[in-house]
């Protein structure tokens, strides 16, 4: 996709990657698949790969791993990619934190995906009152050693629970968008050598109509989504915007040939609002 135009959205170069603490690397932009059914996931994953995406994010909870796997298989069969070109993530749900259940969940996910391995396997939420997240992560480490996942990671973790893990994960996937920039957690992850990945990176477009993001977009001739994703990239984060719209998928890749100034970044930083959380608080979610 180097130096070509994707559905009217200019794209320069390939999607950059970040190095992980285990020697692997992760593309900074991926396709999120939350709330896609199997048929939608198959179509979207197939199209996303055809226009240049190489990073696909799903989870056992999403109920669409079959469709995601079919989309990947379609792209490989068409000769668009080889398996090794892709970075595929899935996650272990809250009811599978016992080691044996984590292993079963991973095996079920691989069967649904039709893959021999995933690139990243995450503990989806810590559920701290259960007190089993470290056991689940430890089993993911074993699965990594067995080659069933390339990297071991977590999602929605915070400092206190990260302290209890047997080693620093490769990735911590958390809710992160301009309203919830998670500065302290990003800094904490960085100190540990952990890459921070942003879910809901566009904040469901709640701050796109007016204000700093809209102003910067107008100044640069970009869309608010592109400005927001560029903000993630310049902070050294990985973003996985979810879209089932082919035009928006292409739009989300059009962030590689411009930069935000320090003034732009500062203006967007002013949107931080502790009441803008979209999902559950990880200190309590799953334990209610």
From TrEMBL:
PANTHER family: 2,5-DIKETO-D-GLUCONIC ACID REDUCTASE (PTHR43827), NADP-DEPENDENT OXIDOREDUCTASE DOMAIN-CONTAINING PROTEIN (PTHR43827:SF3). It comes from the Bacteria. Residues 29-271 form the NADP-dependent oxidoreductase domain. Its EC number is 1.1.1.346. Belongs to the aldo/keto reductase family. This is 2,5-diketo-D-gluconate reductase A. Signal peptide: none annotated. GO terms for molecular function: oxidoreductase activity. Keywords: NADP, Oxidoreductase. Residues 1-20 are annotated as: Disordered. It comes from Corynebacterium freneyi. SUPFAM superfamilies: NAD(P)-linked oxidoreductase. The keyword Nucleotide-binding does not apply. It holds the Pfam family Aldo_ket_red.
